[in-house]
Amino acid sequence: MGSFGTTTDYSRIRLWIEARGGHPARIKDASDSETVRVDFSSETQEEISWDEFFQGLDGSRLAFLHRTKAEDDVARFGRLVRRKRRHR
Question: Considering the entire predicted model, what is its pTM?
Answer without folding.
Answer: 0.74
